[in-house]
Amino acid sequence: MSSVLPALPKPRLTRPSWLSPKVARTEILAGIVVALALIPEAISFSILAGVDPRVGLFSSFVMAVVIAFTGGRPAMITAATGAIALVVAPLALEYGVQYLFAAVVLGGVFQILLAASGVARLMRFIPRSVMVGFVNALAIMIFTAQFPQLIGVPWLVYPMVAAGLAIIFLLPRLTRAIPAPLVAIVVLTTLAVAAGWDLPDVGGEGDLPDSLPFFLLPDVPFTMETLGIIAPYALGVAFVGLMESLMTAKLVDDLTDTHSNKTRESWGQGIANIASGFFGGMGGCAMIGQTMINVKSGARTRLSTFLAGAFLLVLVVALGDIVAVIPMAALVAVMIFVSIATFDWHSLQTIHKMPKSETTVMVTTVAGTLLTHNLAIGVGAGVLAACVLFARRVAHLAEVTSVTDPDGGTRVYSVHGALFFASSNDLYTQFDYADDPENVVIDLSNAHVWDASTVAALDAITHKYETRGKNVEIVGLTGHSADRFDRHTGQLAGAH
């Protein structure tokens, strides 16, 4: 007797969403717009770092292509940035470009190590008000970065920028089939060339490369002396790059209502920087401006990131003569649009309704960024301000009440609230050391001990009573508070 097994259903192959014609078209067009916007930025950042424009352009190409495969945030653009240029500029000036390449490679290694240590998880400690300040400061910096292209230029630049902005804002009301920034660039370029207007263009920003990047080992001595020279700059590349990249990834998460893998993004940035250094690049990180262009153009997948890098190389190497005639006014219009779209206007509308502490943190972040032209410093200042204001607010939540037994021989102090370094300072002053009876009980049933500072404060209180010949009993500690108290009390006893 034989049995016939039922035929198994054929497995269905799911086609990636970015292969659908509609999505692919959006990703391709967004990639072209981003590539065009990357060219003047990469050249400017190269000049800022004190290196040849080819270094910034090659870095942007390599990092965009690599991060498309290794990154954790689809549609985010990684390339040469001003923040990294500021970090490595002193190294390139004093020791030369080969030391810069070596520092970028080492910075990538540090980023991989930081990713393995879980640095991405620290993002959850960045308050919302710091994020808002980061976004607003970024928008202001993108806008003010266009001033050099608007000062001391032919008067025709101004109507060209206005026309570009009109196209970008009005075209989406008619159609969204083609990204409005790309249409603005094509229309203004065609108009400027056809009319023969002498306007600042991309070619005037610096020489475009005429060959492909190639693999190279940094020409530096492999010695401890070299390591001592490049290590501080490599750490700067690693920390600044990760902070900006993770903040940008979080921003894109909010804009697209999707989640990203921050740990993967961290080590992906490291791999991209290593590749950049080995191919003659200056390193970089996520670019908020170009990322906003990409996202606002409708891109949502890795394809747009990859194509931005690929189109960049094609544009500057194969079509350099055409790209060189694009008027800077067109790209300025695109970046002004990006700055307007990036700014969180709702934060201004609700600023009078928000707590003063939240507003202070946001303003501190914006001011710190604009004064230093460094987003990492601005975010650090905002987080520090948030920590100080939080500690100040929570410090006053600890309360001490007391009652004396009817016989007058014992006084019981009840402590309520969170006890940590800030509130512990106030705790020490809440006791009547001179007039209290012989026996004192400190009841911590309604309190939680958070750190060693509180244990030290309780030890100081106990010691002060004992010097007056009085007995102190601490009661009511449970769970983690009791464990923490016992552990640190043992350490203090050993120190005594």
Write out the strand line-up for the largest beta sheet, numbering strands in chain order: 3-4-5-6
Instruction: Note the beta-strand portion.
Output: 5-15%
Low-confidence stretches: none
Estimated structural class: alpha/beta
Taking the alpha carbons of the first and last residues, their distance comes to: 88 Å
- How many DSSP E strands? 6
Largest β-sheet summary? 4 strands, mixed
- DSSP summary: helix tally: 19
Specify the helix fraction band: 55-70%
Q: How would you describe the shape?
A: elongated
Rg over C-alpha atoms, rounded to the nearest angstrom: 30 Å
* Average pLDDT reading: 86
Q: What order do the helices and strands follow?
A: HHEHHHHHHHEHHHHHHHEEHEHEH
What does this structure look like?
The protein has 496 residues and is α/β, with parallel strands linked by helices. It is built from 19 helices and 6 strands. It has helices at 21-49, 53-70, 82-95, 97-116, 128-144, 157-174, 180-195, 224-256, 262-278, 288-296, 302-318, 320-323, 328-342, 345-349, 356-372, 375-395, 421-427, 452-467, 479-495, and strands at 78-79, 285-286, 399-404, 410-419, 439-449, 471-475. A 4-stranded mixed beta sheet has the order 3-4-5-6. Strands 1-2 form a two-stranded antiparallel ribbon. Helix 18 (452-467) links the parallel strand 5 and strand 6 (471-475). The longest helix is centred in the middle third of the chain and has 33 residues, at 224-256. The mean pLDDT is 86.
